[in-house]
Write a structure and sequence with these properties.
This protein is mainly alpha-helical. The mean pLDDT is about 90.
Length: about 160
Amino acid sequence: MAAQLVTRIGVQPVLVAGMIALTGGLVYFTQVSVHGSYLADLLPGFLLVGLGLGFSFVPISIAALAGVRPAEAGLASGLFNTSQQIGGALGIAALSTIATSRTADAVASGTALPSALIDGFTAAFVVGVAVAAVGVLAALTLIRRDELEQAPEELEAALDIAA
């Protein structure tokens, strides 16, 4: 669905919508409580994050591979996918470190473990919100429509590479 929207309305609007949904899902996760339920406290955030990621990956792939010559498409796609994988791993490592550190500090100060875990995860999600918000700003300012204007066959090739 994201690929179809990109061809209709463009890369930037779809990417911005996806990043906003992702940011909203992470904001939702900052509200999780100790005695919360899956249906009320987690599912809406999961749906927003899933929608946001789905609407972000396709346009960011297209933007990253726009203007790449066909002879270099494999190299560019490989570099893009590698940077995505490494960036995701580093992001998870950083957020896990924040959550673990904050939880350990809360436990050391006498907070009960369930509340300490919530404190740790909330701190990690707040940092995640900040990173996602920077992503929204980057999508709004760094992607220029004129750089993405291509012949229809080049757009189809970029969509094929992104898939």
